[in-house]
Amino acid sequence: MPEKNNTETAPDWDRIAADPDFAALKSAKRRFIIPATIFFLVYYMALPVLVGFWPELMKTEVLGKVNIAYLFALSQFLMTWIICAMYVKAAKRWDIMNEALLAKFFR
Questions:
Q1: How many domains would you assign to the chain?
Q2: What are the average pLDDT values for consecutive 10-residue runs of the chain, which has 107 residues?
Q3: Residue 8: its pLDDT value, please?
Q4: Whole-number pLDDT of residue 1
Q5: What pLDDT sits at residue 4?
Q6: Per the domain annotation, does 1 fall within a domain?
Q7: Is residue 57 part of a domain?
Q8: In whole angstroms, what is the distance from residue 42 CA to residue 49 CA?
Q9: Does 31 fall in a domain?
């Protein structure tokens, strides 16, 4: 079986990486991913920290036997869906930017 010659169809990654639209795409991703990741980690680590350092505060009952710790824990599920929705919305913008970038090099 003859080997395929990929030199004709191989993308020029150096040229793509040097394109300003590629830099804009990377920057757009960084502007979302880094703050979202930091927020995610801080928010999810806050519960054990709060329970560890301020247990009496977290035991405060809010709705019957439901206390602040339970509400905070349940809010983490909600926060997961919110962050997921924000990511999906941002990813749609990145897909458009990506398609425009690739169209410049593969038409």
A1: 1
A2: 56 89 96 96 97 97 95 96 97 96 86
A3: 60
A4: 45
A5: 52
A6: no
A7: yes
A8: 10
A9: yes
| Whether 32 contacts 90, CB under 8 Å | yes
- Token code pair at residue 82: 């919110």
CA-to-CA distance for 101 and 94, rounded, in angstroms? Answer: 10
Range of the domain at 28: 15-106
- DSSP string spanning 22-82? HHHHHHHHHHHHHHHHHHHHHHHHHHHHHHHH-HHHHT-EEETTEEHHHHHHHHHHHHHHH
CA torsion sign, 34 to 37 to 41 to 43?
positive
Widest Cα–Cα separation across the chain: 74
Write the CB contacts of 96 (distance below 8 Å, at least 6 apart in sequence): none
Predicted pLDDT of residue 90: 97
**Model pTM score:** 0.78
Q: What values do phi and psi take at 52, rounded to 5? A: -70, -40
Does a structural domain hold residue 3?
no
The 8-class DSSP code of residue 19 comes to S
